[in-house]
Design brief:
With 218 residues, the protein is mainly beta. It is 14% helix and 41% strand. The termini are far apart.
């Protein structure tokens, strides 16, 4: 019961934005970089291939610990690539999990008068993951062909979450930076299908995963 109440509260945080009117006049970034002048260096322009942030998280079906890097488009769309790890004692075999997440954040709302804090109340998207080292995969011919009708190493699923950011001092060339903490609720194709086939035995809380993470602009 406590787990279900916690998951319900986490889901309510981003969804509450639909019920609360606001004026979308706030900027999409939270840096407080002063306006450019003739005496200031121009804002740093990064090459397209260089990651815009690094991140680390735990849970979410992407590893006990996952680290990675990502790219941002106009502070609304994030693409993150992560590598996760699960020790043998927790999974029966050592697991390496390679994943990609795509998340869209329609709003960034400043908090307080200093403009140092901001929240993205709603992040929606999905992920794709591949797991190397699944249990017994090193024992060929242990199961007959078709024993597992579903993929044992590839998962895809939806994500829903929120992010709280703090504005760090800008770079020497004027590029804004943030340190963010986030949570994401997710599921995957196998969990969702299991729920649809057994709605009397499973609840939505049974098929949800929770991840907690930190993201740093670089």
């Amino acid at each position: 019961m406590v787990q279900r109440l916690l998951l319900a509260a986490l889901v309510a945080a981003p969804l509450a934005t639909f019920a609360s009117p606001f004026t979308p006049a706030a900027p999409d970034t939270v840096g407080t970089t002063p306006p450019a002048s003739r005496n200031q260096a121009p804002t740093e322009s990064l090459p397209w291939y260089r990651p815009r942030h690094v991140l680390a998280q735990t849970g979410g079906g992407l590893g006990m610990v996952s680290v990675g890097a990502g790219y941002s488009l106009k502070d609304r769309l994030d693409l993150d690539i992560l590598i996760g790890y699960v020790p043998r004692k927790y999974a029966g075999s050592r697991l390496s999990i390679y994943s990609a997440k795509l998340l869209y954040s329609p709003w960034t709302l400043p908090l307080g008068k200093t403009q140092k804090w901001a929240i993205k109340p709603l992040m929606v998207g999905g992920y794709l993951s591949y797991t190397h080292g699944t249990l017994n995969d090193e024992e060929p011919n242990q199961y007959y062909r078709g024993y597992y009708w579903f993929s044992t190493d590839t998962r895809v699923g939806p994500l829903l979450g929120s992010r709280l950011s703090y504005a760090l001092p800008p770079t020497a060339k004027g590029r804004a930076r943030n340190l963010s903490a986030y949570y994401e609720l997710g599921s995957n194709d196998l969990y969702i299908l299991s729920y649809v086939q057994n709605m009397k035995g499973l609840s939505p809380a049974d098929i949800l995963t929770l991840s907690l993470g930190l993201k740093l602009d670089i």
